[in-house]
Design goal:
By secondary structure, this protein is α/β, with parallel strands linked by helices. The protein contains 10 helices and 12 strands. The protein has a 12-stranded mixed beta sheet. The structure holds S-adenosylmethionine and iron/sulfur cluster.
Length: 329
């Protein structure tokens, strides 16, 4: 049974859910987590598979068509492919964002489960620099994971995401451009956002997508592709027809205007913006036996209050208490 579509108070239809399945991670990326990790949620604080399934089923009735599973690192959640298989029949589009470390083990199971799109995070193509950024000496393992995934035609095109930091990523730009040209991966650079656990973000550390685009264009001319509605990335084709590259520029070119996304944290908090300072608890009502109608109303009320835009570029910006790994990027 279809319910009324989910709309916010600014008239935007909400069709995309980013669902964090765990706050835990096996990496400690500089721009995300402290070296010592974070205090993990207790096991019972995390939504159970059946609870996630119930929320997703309800949201799909309200027009959520696309679900991206993330974390923390989603593949460290026990039995993660089983969760993917439970959700795949409910949605048109089921994707996973992963650091790739466990893809060699899980790629086939996830593709079989019905995951149709993958984003794999890789910040450097040099082993020592990858180690410095993620605090794990794991580049060979991640590249093996990518290859395992690439063996499945259903998983293509595979996106490879790199967070761009000034003073680090400049040396990665052309190697990543070559990587995108030599493989069928769409490489996308993501601007560093103030969601790091160390709260060390400063504007001058943001290497903008435009700077990277210009550096690539000078060597391998690029042609812009039309922007899809609600897309986070601006994508380009190499003018000679070999490969694509994308830029996610939330700081220098915010794309809030047609945002269609909401997020659910691993402990069942609904967030209407990455930078929300408020969140809405769904876990307590779920566990207290709320009806679908009650849950629907809680979701609608929260979504109605969805932020018009983020305030990263304004004086007085306040970084949310949660970091990227506990929100679900
Ligand atoms: N662990 C998985 C991974 O790394 O792909 C999924 C979760 S991670 C939080 C999701 C995405 O957020 C990754 O692409 C990661 O690089 C990105 N990310 C984390 N912290 C960020 C920050 N401060 N600014 C921009 N992107 C960030
Ligand atoms: Fe883990 Fe992903 Fe955060 Fe890196 S970006 S620490 S892999 S959650």
């Amino acid at each position: 049974m279809a319910l009324d579509p989910l709309v916010d108070g600014h008239g935007r239809r909400i069709t995309d859910l980013r669902l964090s399945v765990t706050d835990r991670c096996n990496f400690r990326c500089q721009y995300c987590m402290p070296a010592e990790g974070l205090p993990w949620l207790e096991r019972d604080a995390v939504l159970h598979f059946e609870e996630i399934e119930r929320v997703v089923a309800l949201l799909t009735q309200m027009g959520i068509a696309s679900v991206r599973l993330t974390g923390g690192e989603p593949l460290v959640r026990r039995d993660f492919p089983r969760l993917a298989a439970m959700l795949a029949p409910l949605v048109d589009d089921l994707s996973v964002t992963t650091n790739g470390y466990l893809l060699e083990r899980d790629a086939a199971a996830l593709v079989d489960a019905g995951v149709n799109r993958f984003n794999v995070s890789v910040d450097s193509l040099q082993r020592d620099r990858f180690f410095a950024m993620t605090r794990r000496d794991a580049l060979p393992q991640v590249l093996r994971g990518l290859e395992a995934l690439a063996a499945h035609p259903e998983a293509h095109p595979i996106k490879v995401n790199a967070v761009a930091l000034r003073g680090f990523t400049e040396d990665e730009i052309l190697p990543f451009a070559e990587f995108a040209r030599q493989h069928s991966y769409e490489v996308r650079f993501i601007e560093f956002m103030p969601l790091d656990a160390d709260r060390a973000w400063t504007r001058d550390q943001v290497l903008t997508g435009e700077e990277i685009r210009a550096a690539i264009d000078a060597v391998h001319p690029l042609e812009p592709e039309p922007r899809e509605p609600s897309a986070t990335a601006r994508t380009y084709r190499f003018a000679d027809g070999t490969g694509r590259i994308g830029f996610i520029n939330p700081v220098s070119e915010p794309f809030c205007g047609d945002c269609d996304r909401i997020r659910l944290t691993a402990d069942g908090r609904l967030r209407t913006c990455l930078f929300s300072l408020n969140e809405t608890d769904l876990r307590e009502p779920l566990r207290a036996g709320a009806s679908d109608a009650d849950l629907e109303q809680i979701v609608r009320d929260a979504v109605w209050r969805k932020e018009l835009k983020h305030h990263v570029n304004e004086p007085g910006f306040v970084q949310p208490a949660r970091t990227m790994s506990s929100i679900g990027g």
